[in-house]
Specification:
CATH topology of the largest domain: Alpha/beta knot
Low-confidence stretches: 1-6
Shape: elongated
Number of helices: 11
Order of helices and strands: EHEHHEHEHEHEHHEHEEEHEH
CATH superfamily of the largest domain: SPOUT methyltransferase, trefoil knot domain
Strand order of the largest sheet: 7-6-5-10-8-11-9
CATH class of the largest domain: Alpha Beta
Oligomer: single chain
Structural class: alpha/beta
Strand content: 15-25%
Distance between the termini: 56 Å
């Protein structure tokens, strides 16, 4: 059985990425190719993976590794680190924004908005860091990097398939941005933008309120000025050198995300 991208939307490669899609039901997995040699060698991880596929009734084909290599060569989004496992998958199933916000509010946690991230690897690294830091989910523009799901899944170690991802309403002008911020505040969220401005508070002096929405921008364009103009607070990462450059988006997500996670952890222990 040979499927093309007409039957699905993306190719995921590697056990971590495919397992995440199956376990977290982030998308339909149409077919999974597995290197037959790994099964013959009774590799424990592969046997466990096979059991998972069987439990979820996902079609599986055992084949030579060369067949998988040839299959992936036909797809621009695919890499070479499949480790003998690749899958043809359907569209990403996004979480409704209202549902993500409701669950986050119930937990008193935080979600992150990734605004203007222009590279799928950077997007994947950012989601990986935010997920590890305990973010309840990610909010992305309608035009986002989930169309390059294979790259995102690889760079995020499967986190883009594990976490809840919602899309924001389409933003056409300043009013749309302001309305979005008003909606978040009305839902009880404290809105924070990561940026260096004259009015910003340094991260380690910052006291976030939860539930919160953290806005992080891409390295070239940064966060939309309309989001910054309408947020509750602005936070910056202090430098301990004379560096003038901005940090990569993924690094910003890690530093601020883990600081938020630490504050949440302390609150829960009190």
């Amino acid at each position: 059985m040979i499927l093309s991208e007409k039957d699905g939307v993306c190719i995921l490669e590697g056990m971590i990425s495919v397992s995440a899609a199956v376990k977290y039901k982030s998308r339909k997995v149409h077919l999974c190719y597995i290197d037959a040699e790994k099964v013959k060698k009774r590799d424990r991880k592969v046997l466990g993976f096979l059991k998972l596929l069987e439990q979820e009734n996902i079609p599986t084909e055992l084949c030579e590794r060369a067949v998988i290599d040839a299959f992936l060569e036909k797809h621009e989004d695919a890499g070479t680190s499949h480790g003998g496992i690749a899958a043809v998958c359907g569209e990403r199933i996004f979480t409704p924004l209202s549902e993500l916000l409701s669950k986050t509010a119930e937990n008193g946690g935080f979600v992150a908005v990734l605004d203007g991230v222009e590279d799928p690897f950077n997007f994947g690294y950012s989601v990986r860091n935010l997920y590890a830091a305990g973010a309840c989910g990610i909010i992305v523009p309608q035009r986002n990097w989930m169309s390059a799901a294979g790259v995102c899944a690889r760079s995020s170690a499967g986190a883009t398939e594990m976490c809840h991802i919602a899309t924001m309403p389409e933003m056409k002008d300043a009013k749309d941005h302001a309305d979005f911020m008003k909606m978040l505040k009305k839902a009880g969220f404290f809105t924070v933008c990561a940026a260096k401005t004259a009015e910003c508070t340094e991260l380690f002096d910052f006291e976030p309120c939860f539930p919160a929405v953290l806005f992080v921008g891409g390295e070239k364009r940064g966060i939309s000025p309309d989001f910054v103009a309408n947020c509750d607070d602005i936070v910056s990462i202090p430098y301990f050198s004379d560096a003038k450059f901005s940090l990569p988006t993924a690094s910003t997500c890690a530093i601020i995300g883990f600081e938020f996670g630490k504050r949440l952890s302390k609150d829960k222990k009190v």
